[in-house]
Design a protein that fits this description.
The chain has 212 residues and is mostly helical. Helix content is 68%, strand content 2%. The chain has one domain: Arp2/3 complex 21 kDa subunit ARPC3.
Length: 212
Amino acid sequence: MEITMYVNRYKHARYNFFKWRYQLEFYHKVILAISFACITGILAQVRFYLPGSQIPLTGQTFAVLLSAVILGKWWGGISQTIYVGVGLVGIPWFAGLHGGFAYFMGSTGGYLIGFIIAAFFLGYFIDTYVKSRKYLTMFALMLFANFVIVFGLGLLYYYMCLSVAGPVDIGFWLYSGLIVCIPGEIIKIGIASGISGSITPKQAYGKEVDAV
């Protein structure tokens, strides 16, 4: 009986949070967006190396996905726009404490653009469809946002950068730009979708089109 009571309290609390977030005044949403841009900058410095990989697993994309879930339509993407924009002017909060336009024009620029679009994409589904907040649906949406949007744009831009120096070794391009990252990205997506599925309410808090 007590377990049921605590579960119901938790469900009520998460609904109240998202309802509150949805109804916030403009300037409060701006503050939240700036806060999540800062969180993204912090998590970008968290690095783990998987066995056999020379490329670290960072918390950057984890923050991007959660910003979309917690801030929702528009504001998740706006938070990542702030993150990229502030990094462009020189604040060293991209991965590895890098910043500035020169870094953005390097091989990872496409991934940074992908962060913004992926956050807009995922945030739209979170605020528009109640069914998108289930674990498996969330996992599928995050897979698409991460591998199709972020890595799709990242690989395209990375290819353009490599082609400047001459013919591109396709195997090296795919391995260094995607394949080596797949295990770590799937781990992050699994964790992010699990967290998202547990913290998002399964009833409408706004203008969801599939609300019963």
